[in-house]
Amino acid sequence: MAGEKEIKEIYENGMKILEELTSNAHEIQEQMLEEILIRNAGTEYLSRFFVHGQNHKQNFKTNVPIVTYEDIKPYIDRIANGETSSILFADPITQFIQSTGTSEGKPKLIPMTAESFEKRMVKPLLVDLVMKKCISGLDQGKSFYLFFVKPEMETPSGLMASLYTTSYFKTQIFKNGLAKFCTSPIDTILCLDNKQSMYCQLLTGLLLRDEVVRIGSSFASVLARSIKFLEDYWKELCSNIRTGYLSDWIADPACRNAMSSILTRPEPELADLIQQICEDKSWEGIIKELWPEVKCISSIITGSMSQYIPLLEFYGGGIPLVSPNCGSSEACFGINLKPLSKPFDVSYTILPNMAYFEFLPVNNDGGGMSHETTTVNKPVDLANVKIGRYYEVVVTTLAGLYRYRVGDILKVTGFYNKSPQFQFVERQNVVLSIDLDKTTEVDLSKAITKAKLVLEPLGIMLTTYSSYADTSLTPGRYVLFWELKMKGSNDLPKLDAKIMEECCGIVEESFDFTYKSLRKGGVISALELRVVKHGTFDELMDFYVSKGASISQYKPPCCLKSEEAVKLLNLGMVGTFFSPKTMF
C-alpha cells in the first residue's frame, strides 16, 4: 500500500512533520491548489469555468462558484449510477464516504480516491503522537476505545459507500497499528450488531481494567450511551466475569471466538470488585473507579458534543477530557496540539495538507446565516484569517469537491507557526423556523447554556436536549426536550414549576429581535419545555441507528424533523412547562 512508507515516517518523525507543515502552511496550501487544478482542470465540472489558455489557479476564485452539496449532488449521483468519475476529478474513485445523516437528514455521498483516503489515515497517527507527547503514561498501557461499524452499501456503479470509520477499521494500517494498542479485539469492533459489539467491548475493557490508560470514542455521545449500557448490563457483565462464561445471546461467531481468548477463566474477585463499584447509588467518578490507571478520556467534545461535557466530567471523576481532532465527512480540518486544554478552551490547528481551505466571514458572534453575508464578504485564504473572527469553512479537495461549503463555523483563536488555530462552533444551519424567525443551532445552544445555569446550584444536570417547531396549532411554538438527572444519582429531580418556567424565560430572552417581535405580536406562542425521563435520549439514538445512522458517529439532532422521533420523546415525558404568556 502506497501509504505505508508515509505512515512509518510519521511514527518516526511525526512532530518534525507537524512543525514543517505548520511553518509552511501558506506555501503548502498554494501547492495543493495548483496540484488539484492541474490534475482536474479538464474534468466536465471544472472545464466549463475556464476558457482555453486561461490560468486556472489565478482565476480559480473568480470563475469557480462556492457551492453546497445540493449543487454537486447531480454529478455525484451520476458517478454512483455508473458514469465515469472524470465528471468531477481525474483520478479513479475507489469508494464513497457517507456522512452520519443525523445532522441534516439523509446521508451525503462524498467521493474518495485511494490517495485521498490514505492521506486521511495520517491524522489518527498524528493525534496519537501528540497525545503521547503531552500526556505521560499513554504508551505504558492499552486504550479502551469504543469503536463501531455500519454495513456498507453498494451503489449501482458497484462502488461501495460506507462511513469513513468503517472503511478505516478494515484497513491493515489500523489492524496492524493502532488496533494493537486497543483493548477491543478487531472482530468485536467489526461486528455489525451494535449491541453485541458494545457488550463485548465493555466486557473486554473490564477484564483488562488494570491495563487501561485511555478511554475514548469518536464522539462524546457514544461514551454517554456506553455508560447507560453499563448501567443496564453491569450485573450480567459481572456474571460473565465471575463464571468465565460468555452470555449465550452473544451469537456472532467472530465475537465469541475473539472473547474466548480473553474470557479464559472465572475471576470472582474481579467480579466482586466491579459489582461493589456499580452498586453505589451515585455513579459520580465511576470511570475513575472502574479504570484506576486512566490518564484521559478522549472524544470529540466540541460543537454539538459540548452538551455532554458536564456528564463526562461527572462520571470521569477528574480525569482530563481530551478533544483530539476536528473534521467532517468531506475533509479533515485539524488536530488539538494542547490536548490538556480545558474543554471549552480547546483549539484545533489546521493541517494544511488535508485540503485547500477558504474561509467565509460570518457575523462576529458566530450567529446568523452565513449565506446572508457572502454577497458582501469575500472568502479569505488560510494566511489572511483574523484572530477573533468567525468563518464558515470552504474546502477544495483531491476528490472532486471544489469550493464546497461544509457548513461548519470556526472561530480563529490564534496561529501555531503559520497555521491558524480555531475553535469549533455549532453548525450554522437553521434548526427552528416559524414565520420570519430563523433560529440557528448556535442561537439555540447559547440560549440553553444560559438557562441551565439556573439548575446547577440545585444539583440538577441537563444531560442532553433537542427541539422542534410545533406548528400543529396556531400560533406555533418552539418546543424543547430536556433530559435531566440529579448529580448524586440517576433519579429524576423534583421539578419546581417556577424554576422550569424561569428556564423557559431565559431561553426566550436569549433569542434575537425577530423572535421577540413575533412573540410579542402573537405570531409565535410561548416556548414549551418538556422534561423526559432518564434514558429517553438513548432510545432516540437507538431509533436513529435502526434507521441507518451509525452509533459510532451519532450526533443527537439539535432539531427533530421526524414525527416518529417526536412521538418517541413524548412517550418519555414526565413534565411540561411554558414561558409566561406575555414577556416582551
TrEMBL record:
The keyword Ligase applies. It holds the Pfam family GH3_M. InterPro entries: GH3, GH3_C, GH3_M. The keyword Ligase applies. Residues 348-427 form the GH3 middle domain. Keywords: Ligase. One of its GO terms (molecular function) is acid-amino acid ligase activity. Residues 443-564 form the GH3 C-terminal domain. One of its GO terms (cellular component) is cytoplasm. PANTHER family: GH3 DOMAIN-CONTAINING PROTEIN (PTHR31901), INDOLE-3-ACETIC ACID-AMIDO SYNTHETASE GH3.17-LIKE (PTHR31901:SF95). Belongs to the IAA-amido conjugating enzyme family. This is Indole-3-acetic acid-amido synthetase GH3.17-like. It comes from Gossypium davidsonii.
